[in-house]
Amino acid sequence: xxxxxxxxxxxxxxxxxxxxxxxxxxxxxxxxxxxxxxxxxxxxxxxxxxxxxxxxxxxxxxxxxxxxxxxxxxxxxxxxxxxxxxxxxxxxxxxxxxxxxxxxxxxxxxxxxxxxxxxxxxxxxxxxxxxxxxxxxxxxxxxxxxxxxxxxxxxxxxxxxxxxxxxxxxxxxxxxxxxxxxxxxxxxxxxxxxxxxxxxxxxxxxxxxxxxxxxxxxxxxxxxxxxxxxxxxxxxxxxxxxxxxxxxxxxxxxxxxxxxxxxxxxxxxxxxxxxxxxxxxxxxxxxxxxxxxxxxxxxxxxxxxxxxxxxxxxxxxxxxxxxxxxxxxxxxxxxxxxx
Length: 339
Known about the structure:
By secondary structure, this protein is an alpha/beta fold. It has 2 domains: 2-71 and 310-337, no CATH class; 79-305, von Willebrand factor, type A domain (Rossmann fold, 3-Layer(aba) Sandwich). The protein is built from 12 helices and 10 strands. Strands 6-5-4-7-8-9 form a 6-stranded mixed sheet, sandwiched between helices. Strands 1-2 form a two-stranded antiparallel ribbon. The longest helix has 19 residues, at 315-333.
C-alpha cells in the first residue's frame, strides 16, 4: 500500500495532544446533556465510550484524506479477434485501376472487421509501416485514402513488404532481445539461420503466434529486394498463414513475361505452403471466397489495452469514520433519552 498525501498525517499531532488533554481533563469541554443528570448502569458505560468513538471518527477521517492506495497493478481490455496485417503493393505497375481496386477491397475488408486488430503496410522499391495493428476503423480508412501508387518507389519488393508486415506483427515482442536488421539477415539465406530459429522459439514460448495472418494485395510480380519465398518460409515455420489477393497490373512491370509467370507461381506455392490461399481480385466470386476464408479463421484473445494504475483505498477509512461519527451522534442525541 502507498500513501498519496502522507503530510496529512501531521494532523495526528494536534489530534493526539487533544486526546491526551481529554483523558487528563485539562480542557474546557463543550456543553452536553450528560451533565444534566448522571447515568447509571449500562447507560453510564456507554457514556464513557462517547468521546473515544468521536476521536475514532476523526482519526479515520485523517487516514482517509491521506489518500491510501494499492501499489500499481495492470488492467487489460480484452476482445476476441484476429491480428491481421494488410500489405498493399504501391509500385508503378499498380498505377490507375489496380490501386483503386486494391483500395476498394481493403476498404470493404476494414469495414467487415470491427473486432480484429488491423495494420497496414505498403511496398514498392522499399516497404513502410503505415498503421500499427489497431481497431480504430477511422484511422485505417483515412490512412488507406492517402495510399498512392509509387509512394515508396517504382519497383516491386514483395519480400520486403512481407518482412515489414512480420515486423509489425511482432514489434512489441522483439524488445531488446531481437532486432529487425538481424532477423532480416537471418532469413535472407537458403535456409533459416540460428537467429531466426531462436526468434521463432521465443515467440512460441511466449504463446504469441495464434490468430495472426498477413494479406498481400499485389500483382504477384516482384523485381527487387529479397525473394518473397524467404519471409514466407519464416511464416510457415511459425504457423502463420499468408494470403494473396492478386490484382492485374495496370502498367508495365519491367519483368519478362516468362519470368513474371514464374514469380507468380513461386509466390502462389509459397503462400499455399503456409496454409493460406491465392485469390484473384478481378473475379467477384473469388473475392467473396476470400472474405469467407478469413471469417473461418478461429478468433483468439486479444489484449487491446493494458493500463497500469492504482486502486484508491480511502473509501474504507471514510466509511469507518462515518460509522463512528453516526454512533457518537446517536449516543449524544438519542441514547440518553431512552429511559
